[in-house]
Amino acid sequence: MSFELRGVSVRYASAKHTPSDLALKDIGLSIKQGEQIALIGPSGAGKTTLLHTLACAHSISSGEFSAFGVTPWTLDHGERHALRARFFLAPQTPPLPPRQRVVTAVLAGRLPQWSFWQAIASLIRPNDTDVAYEALARFNLQDKLYARVDRLSGGERQRCGMARLLVSNADAFLVDEPLSALDPALSLQTLAALQQEATRRSATLVCSMHQVELALAHFPRIVGLRDGRIVFDAARTAVTEAMVLALYRNTDDAVAVVATQTYTDAC
Amino acid sequence: MAVAMILLFPILVSGEFKPWLLLDAQSLGATGHFLASFVPPAHSREFLLLILAATWQTIAIATAGLTLALLGAIPLTLLATESLSVSRMESGHMRPAGVAIRQSARWLLVLLRSVPELVWALLLVRIVGLGPTAGVLAIALTYSGMLGKVYAEILESTESHVSESLLKNGSGRLLALLYGTLPASASELVSYTTFRWECAIRGSVMMGFVGAGGLGQRMDESMKMLAGDEVSTMLVIFVLLVACADLISTFLRKRLG
C-alpha cells in the first residue's frame, strides 16, 4: 500500500487563514503501489495541499496517514526527512533557478542519492550528464542541456521540471499541474512520458490537472476534490459528465469545463 | 515626510550641523594653507618604494582579515538562516530547538559586530604587540559579524520556492541552499563581499593609526610631520585602491551572470 489516509484534516500553511480553517477536511484515500490517479477539481479545492500532504511536506492536524507502510508523523525528524527521498513532489511553477544551467538544474533531482562531496563536485563539473541528457531527450529538450534556465520558454521549463523527476529514484510521483504551459501535442507527449516512467518503475503517480478530458482519457482512476473534500473517487469508466459538471458547478473554472465538454460532444 | 523633517531638526542641532562654518574667512585661510602643502605629491623613488610596501601590507591585512571573517561568518549564516528550516516547511513554525539555535547564532553575530574594529585593534595591540596581526584579527572579528548578518538576510530574502522544492524531495539542507538559493543570490553576495573588502582596506588604514602597520601607520607619521605632499600621495593610492575594488566587483558580477 503506497498511501493510506483515514479521516485526515489539514490546516492551511499560511498565516492569513484562521487556525480553524481547514484546507482538507476528513480525507479518506487508499492508493496501492503502482496506481495512476488523476486529481481534478476547481481552483482552491485543495489539490496542491493534498499532494503536499502525500509527500510529507505538510503536517496533518488530525486523522491517520501512512505511506509505504510507516506513519511519517510518528517518526523522528531525521527519519522522516530520509523518507522524503522516496517521493518526488513536482510543483506547479518549475522550481528551477533562473541563472543555473539546465544540466545542473535537472541533476538536482539526484541530490538525495548523492553524498555531500559528490554533490559539491557536481556543482563544479556535473556527474551523470548522460543521465540528464537521456531524461531531457524524452521531452525533446536534449539540445538545451547546457543552456541557462532563464533562456527557456515557460513550456520548456515545465518539461525540465519533469526531466528532474525522471532522474530521481522516487517510488511515488506527486505532480501538480504538469501540463499548464504546454500545447495539446506536447501535453500528450509529456503525459505519455510520465506514465511510461511510472509504469517502468512500478511507481505510484498522482497527477493533478485542469484538463479533464485528458484525465478521463489517460488515467484509470479519477479523484474529484472540492472545498477540501473528496467528492468522488472512481474508475474512469464510472465517471459521468454530470459528475464532472457538478464538481465544477458555480466556480470560476465551470466555464472552461462546460466548453471542453461541449467540444468533446460535438466531435 | 513632515514627521521625518520634525525629527531631523533636533538631530541636526545636537550633531552641531553648521556647514556655514566651512565658508568663513578664517577657515578658508587655514584650508588654503593646508591644501597648498599637498601639491605636488611626494614622488621620490625611496618614498614610493616605501609606500608600495606599506600598500601591499594594507591589502594583505584587509584580505587576510576578510578571509578569516568569511570562515567565521559562513557557519553562522547557515545556522541563522530561517529559510532552511525543515520544521517550518512542515507546519509553518520552527521547532523550539531550531528557534534556539537560530537565535543564538543571530546574537553571536550582533555581539561580534557591536565592538568597533578600532577598539578591538587597541586591545589586540596590547596583547599581540604592534604590527599587522592586531589589524587582521580586529577585522576578522568585526567583519564576520557584518558578513554573517547580511548574508543571512540576502539568503532569506531570495525566493525560497526552489530550495524548498529540493528540501521537500529529501535533499540535505546545505545542498538545497547550494543548488537552490545560491544561483540566485550569488551576485548580491559577491557584490557585498567586495564592498566589505574595500571597507576592510579603509579600516586597516585607520587601525594603522593605533599601530597596526600598513599605510595607516605611514599616514600617521606623515601627518605628524605635517608632510602634506606625502599624505596626498597616499590619498591618491587610496582612490586607486577603491577604484580597483570597484572594477573587481563589476568583473565578478559579470562573470556570475
Description:
The complex is a heterodimer of chains A (267) and B (257). Chain A has one domain (3-266): P-loop containing nucleotide triphosphate hydrolases (Rossmann fold), CATH 3.40.50. Chain A is globular. In chain A, the strands form two sheets. Chain A has a six-stranded mixed beta sheet, sandwiched between helices. Chain A has a three-stranded antiparallel beta sheet with strand order 2-1-4, covered by helices on one side. With 267 residues, chain A is α/β, with parallel strands linked by helices. In chain A, 37% of the residues lie in helices and 21% in strands. Chain A has ten helices and nine strands. Chain B is 81% helix and 0% strand. Chain A binds chain B through residues 13-15, 52, 55-59, 77, 81-89, 91, 93, 95-100, 104, 108-109, 111-112, 116, 119-120, 123, 148, 168, 170, and chain B through 86-87, 89-92, 95, 161-162, 164-166, 168-172, 174-176, 178-181, 183-184, 186, 256-257.
Characteristics of this structure?
heterodimer, A: 267 residues, alpha/beta, Rossmann fold, six-stranded mixed beta sheet, 10 helices, globular, B: mainly alpha
Structural class of chain B: mainly alpha
**Termini separation of chain A:** 40 Å
CATH architecture verdict of chain A: 3-Layer(aba) Sandwich
Instruction: Name the CATH homologous superfamily of chain B.
Output: MetI-like
* Tally of contiguous helical segments of chain A: 10
Task: Provide the structure class of chain A.
Answer: alpha/beta
Cα-to-Cα separation, first versus last residue of chain B: 38 Å
- What is the overall silhouette of chain A? globular
Count the beta strands of chain B.
0
Strand portion of chain B: under 5%
